[in-house]
């Protein structure tokens, strides 16, 4: 019961779940508020930009419209009319040109004025063309699309309006939007945001760093696309919208509104990650506080559970030692409770496992000895067909083990190498003796039959579960490092490591043994051949390991084995 009470007290003290729930609710609610604040800030920003834009457009427009308030403008002498035009140009540097047309939309001689001298003919023609296009069925002030000043790079807006009641003529003017453009370029929306103006066609009028030059098509930008969709089939309406547009890294928080006089959209954009930076900061602070609360809870839980965890550590240590095969280990817990009884049971179980392990080791060693004798007999059955290869399989197994030990393989892998080396040519049982024992060079057809022995050997030992790990040595000992071997044309490290080691040992023994077609080579010559095959047929790492074996122990050639002693 004392253990149960300790666990119950731990669950009551460590209120992690309620803390997490409160933290999650706080984060979600506060995030919603901060997102709303960020959007309201974007809304207020675009309203301020609209007021500024209306001032930049309204002041020069009012100056031009002042001509309509001159009494009897068309009845004044020509010089007086020219004086009024010049007055407007002198008062407003952003008014670039003024032209007066009669009731038939024909330009009146002498009533055309420009703020600059020597205006090129193309600029005159462009101004008149834009003005005449506005006069068709005009009733009030009408604006043309913004164009670039031919004498510079500033945006120019052309407007026109009728004069007199009834209409006696028309006045057209070119307005420079240079100040408006400069204002928008200098307008900063946070550290990376910007603002811009777009006309009803989705073309840029003026903008900040996030968009390019005048006339650029910005209809695909999220806020402009949303606005153009709202304007379909509608006119002279004031729209306002704020929200998120785009996805991923292109997502922005944007707000837009429409200038009623021109139908332009003034847009403010800011990347989501910057617009909601306060949201992220808030979340980090709440999470930090949440982490601190959880840390306090964990510390309190640790204080209450100290007496519980100490005995458990002893059990964990003992269990790990049992898992690693150290049977008979005991835990020392002197407590008169459930943990003490569990310790006594654990110690009894450990002693019983030790007794069973000693008995099983004896049985396993006897069984393994029988397996090894069977394997050697199988290998001898192959070697006995050819006096020249007698002992070859055993030597390949021994050399393979030495190489594997140099590569720091485990005892289990060394044992598999021993079996794999002995059995690597077991498939030759299925090759007819006329080919297997032929004293001359094999024909292509005979060589194709001989190359079937790895697959035959794999099929022979496949049903033997004990030799499952050895199958790779049997099947792949003729694969080449460059991928041109057989039977599966494996390449590089796709070839199992044990098979690469057996292939190297097999080649080494072939070079240092007398065969029908060659005499045993000196050790130096054999290693020269292996060096040449390194990186093409053999794994360079395995060849290097063989060199290290020879350097440490030395090798007596044909008919002699490397000293090998496998761990039992």
TrEMBL record:
Residues 367-562 form the HD-GYP domain. GO terms for cellular component: plasma membrane. The keyword Transmembrane applies. Pfam families: dCache_1, HAMP, HD_5. It is found in: Cell membrane. One of its GO terms (biological process) is signal transduction. The keyword Membrane applies. Residues 306-358 form the HAMP domain. This is HD-GYP domain, c-di-GMP phosphodiesterase class II (Or its inactivated variant). It is a multi-pass membrane protein. The chain crosses the membrane at residues 6-27, 286-304. It comes from Myxococcus virescens. InterPro entries: dCache_1, HAMP_dom, HD/PDEase_dom, HD_GYP_dom. PANTHER family: CYCLIC DI-GMP PHOSPHODIESTERASE PA4108, CYCLIC DI-GMP PHOSPHODIESTERASE PA4108-RELATED. The lineage of its organism: Bacteria, Pseudomonadati, Myxococcota, Myxococcia, Myxococcales. Keywords: Cell membrane, Membrane, Transmembrane, Transmembrane helix.
């Amino acid at each position: 019961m004392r253990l149960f009470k300790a666990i119950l007290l731990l669950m009551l003290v460590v209120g992690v779940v309620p803390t997490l729930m409160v933290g999650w609710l706080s984060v979600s609610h506060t995030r919603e508020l901060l997102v709303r604040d960020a959007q309201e800030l974007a809304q207020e920003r675009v309203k301020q930009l609209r007021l500024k834009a209306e001032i930049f457009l309204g002041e020069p427009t009012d100056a031009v419209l002042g001509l309509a308030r001159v009494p009897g403008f068309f009845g004044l002498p020509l010089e007086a009319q020219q004086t009024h035009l010049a007055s407007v140009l002198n008062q407003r540097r952003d008014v670039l040109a003024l032209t007066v047309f009669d009731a038939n939309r024909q330009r009146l001689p002498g009533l055309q004025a420009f703020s600059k001298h020597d205006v090129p003919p193309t600029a005159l023609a462009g101004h008149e063309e834009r003005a005449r296009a506005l006069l068709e069925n005009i009733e009030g002030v009408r604006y043309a699309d913004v164009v670039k000043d031919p004498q510079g790079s500033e945006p120019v807006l052309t407007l026109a309006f009728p004069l007199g009641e009834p209409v006696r003529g028309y006045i057209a003017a070119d307005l420079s939007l240079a100040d408006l453009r400069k204002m928008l370029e200098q307008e900063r929306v946070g550290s990376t945001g910007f603002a811009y103006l777009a006309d009803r066609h989705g073309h840029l009028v003026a903008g900040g760093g996030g968009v390019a030059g005048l006339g650029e098509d910005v209809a695909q930008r999220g806020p402009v696309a949303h606005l153009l969709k709202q304007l379909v089939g509608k006119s002279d309406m004031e729209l306002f919208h704020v929200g998120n547009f785009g996805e991923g890294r292109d997502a922005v928080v944007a707000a837009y509104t429409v200038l009623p006089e021109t139908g332009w959209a003034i847009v403010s954009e800011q990347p989501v990650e910057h617009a909601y930076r306060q949201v992220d900061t808030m979340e980090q602070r709440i999470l930090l506080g949440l982490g601190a609360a959880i840390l306090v809870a964990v510390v309190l839980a640790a204080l209450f559970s100290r007496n519980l965890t100490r005995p458990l550590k002893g059990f964990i240590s003992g269990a790990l030692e049992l898992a690693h095969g150290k049977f008979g280990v005991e835990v020392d817990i002197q407590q008169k409770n459930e943990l003490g009884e569990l310790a006594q049971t654990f110690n009894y179980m450990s002693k019983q496992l030790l007794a069973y392990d000693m008995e099983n080791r004896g049985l396993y060693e006897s069984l393994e000895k029988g397996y090894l004798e069977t394997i050697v007999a199988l290998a001898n059955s192959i070697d006995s067909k050819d006096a020249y290869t007698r002992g070859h399989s055993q030597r390949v197994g021994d050399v393979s083990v030495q190489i594997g030990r140099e590569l720091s393989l485990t005892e289990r892998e060394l044992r598999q190498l021993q079996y794999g080396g002995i059995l690597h040519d077991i498939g030759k049982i299925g090759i007819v003796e006329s080919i297997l024992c032929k004293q001359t060079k094999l024909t292509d057809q005979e060589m194709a039959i001989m190359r079937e022995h790895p697959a035959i050997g794999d099929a022979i030992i496949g049903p033997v579960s004990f030799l499952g790990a050895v199958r790779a040595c049997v099947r792949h000992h003729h694969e080449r490092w460059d991928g041109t071997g057989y039977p599966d044309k494996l390449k590089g490290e796709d070839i199992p490591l044990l098979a690469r080691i057996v292939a190297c040992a097999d080649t080494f023994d072939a070079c240092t043994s007398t065969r029908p077609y060659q005499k045993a080579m000196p050790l130096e010559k054999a290693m020269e051949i292996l060096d040449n095959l390194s990186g093409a047929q053999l794994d360079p790492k395995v060849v290097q390991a063989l060199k290290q074996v020879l350097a440490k122990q030395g090798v007596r050639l044909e008919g002699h084995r490397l000293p090998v002693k496998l761990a039992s």
